[in-house]
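Researcher: I'd like a structural prediction for the single chain below. Treat it as a standalone chain; there are no partners to consider.
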Amino acid sequence: MTAATRGQAAMPRPDSHVIVVFGATGDLARRKLLPGLYGLAEAGLLPERYQIIGTSPAARAPSEAEFRARARDAVAQFGARKPGGGQWQRFEDSLHYAGADTGDPAPLVAAVRRAEQALGGQPRRLFHLAVPPPAFEPVIGMLGASGLAEGPSRVIIEKPFGTDLASARALNARIHQVFDESQVFRIDHFLGKESVDNILALRFANGIFEPVWNRQHISYVQIDVPETLSIEGRAGFYERTGAYRDMVVTHLLQVLGIVAMEPPASLSARALRDEKEKVFESMPPIDVRQVVRGQYAGYQDEPGVAPGTQTETFVAVRAAVDNWRWSGVPFCLRTGKALGASRQLVTLGFHQPAIAMFPVDRERCPDGPANRLAIDFQDPGSITAHFLAKEPGPQMVLGAADMTFRYGESFSAQHDLEGYQRLIHDAMLGDQTLFTRADGIERLWEISGPLLDNPPPAEPYQKGSWGPESASRIAAPYRWSLPEPDPPARRPA
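Model: Treating it as a single chain, here is the predicted structure.
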């Protein structure tokens, strides 16, 4: 679905809701959730009648007035739409706060009851767990014991969903004691991106690409998400996870599932998720020999990092999908902190023609023939075809050329939704298409087992680089598409 179709008339409005945000004073709520909810209100995509309740442990609970002031500051600082006017007043009036502990949920229960009475009828409940992973199970247990999970309720759970197969299974089992799988929304904001969503349209709506999206035409796939940021004071979280758990299982493998899936029977949530899970079932366990882990220089000097730690801040993985479509095609995944650029790129490299009948200008094509399709899914996103074209002049000499489609220049962004906004809206509607399923996440932890059990040493790399030099072998015999080579200077006509 493109931004041009995302108007109020194209997107249904949810039923009345009581939205409960756990961890409402935390960084995620400040940067994403509160600005996102207000953005939905401005777009007319929140219910006609809604109430929002923030909650956190009672000892740290602000007053309702303080919470509303924090919300205004969050929207002013991080929201695309700034607070003001009647829409803001209505949104602010809907904000409430209830401090509650897992052992004493009474204040939260009372706040939810008051909100439901104010709305009238039978509003739905949406619980968003923007809390650290160790708090997932206690909060789920509290929702079950207090009765808040009963009736028309749904729960959004943040990543990471487990740290290995055993923990993911235990967490799923605990959740299923309280919620049916149809009520569970494991959120991955990557899957809410407009440009990731459009991979499906690019593949299945265009006869140019659908017939060649297979091993007979594609020689490799790269999913590359470097970041310039360091861990930014998140040592407590990062030391428990590392780059592989934080990014590869949660984000990059999910994108791989969309790139590699078979055509679904329909665009229903069940059909789309079934095809994505089939991809995961077709993946063999990660080969530790095809993994490079790295750690940026200075990581061990970060506050809260244990001396001598082997936690990786960089990882490059060569994965495979062993089915009829993709057998023999390497899927190369790379991500890391403190790297040379912040990008989010899927690259598909196509096979070269059987006979190279044209001479190639090596000055303008230092890496040889181009033959790549690059999908940049960093908002607003773009699609670039890298190919060869004849250089001006009397001789048949080829040089590199690009054709680029940019979403931001091609469609109106008036009703475009940021990833979290799209996913919260989908959860209110009960649409699970872009959320991960229990069996899928467990399968990804299962294939990750060999790496988690026996990780290779973390190799040092310098900040601002592209990770350890040995990572080049993961993409070999090809090269990583990032960093992109400098464009050659144009020759005078």
